[in-house]
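Translate sequence into structure tokens.
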Amino acid sequence: MRAADVEDAAEDSYAESLLAAIIAKRFYLENASKVDIAQEMGLSRFKVARLLELAVNRGLVRIDITFPVAIDEELSGSLARRYGLRHAVVVDPRQDDRGGPEPFTQLLAPPAARLVTDLLHEEDVLGLAWGRAVTAVSRAFTRLPPCSVVQLTGVDPQRPITDESVRAVSLAASLSDGAAHPLYAPLVLPNALTSAVLRSQPTIAETLNRLGTLTTAVLAVGAWGPGLSTVHDALSEPEQRHHAELGVVAEMASLLFDADGTPILTDLRDRMIAVDAEQLRRTPEIIAVAGGRDKARAVRAVLRSGLLTGIVTDAATARAALAPAPGTGR
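Result follows.
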């Protein structure tokens, strides 16, 4: 090769590296989407993706993945194999009892946000259900690909309609530069007629119609007890006892399960504004985020339902899910 050709090649390589560095800065530090970068630079999305890969390969970008807690890889693998999950992340808080749900929520949110971000692609539809854990995950997102975000359940009827679950959808949508589809309605209504009337309202109906297009859903798990389930706490005491007598031990996105993970169907479904079981079963990725000793039995039940493709939980809850059920040996 002639010296002039070598010099030209070096200049081309430098120019390409410089462009890759500029694009990497926009993407990784400024949260610009690949689509936006392509439009700004007059490039195709595929060229932007190639230059981002080049930036990593040439050491212009160094990616370090760190977690605030240790990830127990052995427990994660065991949980995935036992329940046929594609994704299992088990965090080890170094304590079996942290005194309540909130510390677990904060521990689980960052790894859950990373998992969900990795699963999402451009033009996907992300669904977020009501729950402290899901709200914490939405706050832990740092970037998302361009996608729309849909609220999967109405809000806690004891809270304002514009509560945290609605804000979680808006926050995620703002990061993804996508459309937000909130549900300005309570999760549990007093009767089926009121639920039907609200479901027919144009904005609510539009959001509910999008539930059939979900690609990834993020859900919290509730246990059937005071302060552990929005559905439980929305019911009267006789209704709470009635469902306990039916065998309900877990709730996820308003779906009720017994200890074996079998769905329990009651007329309560007619009073709900939420995603249904069939819509979830058609969703390619369903990720539960839940932990804490008070929810261990509920998490096990939801795992046994077969609905989940992934879970983010703590080590104590994972061990409980892997232990033989009392009196069954399995």
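Note: The chain has a mean pLDDT of 85.
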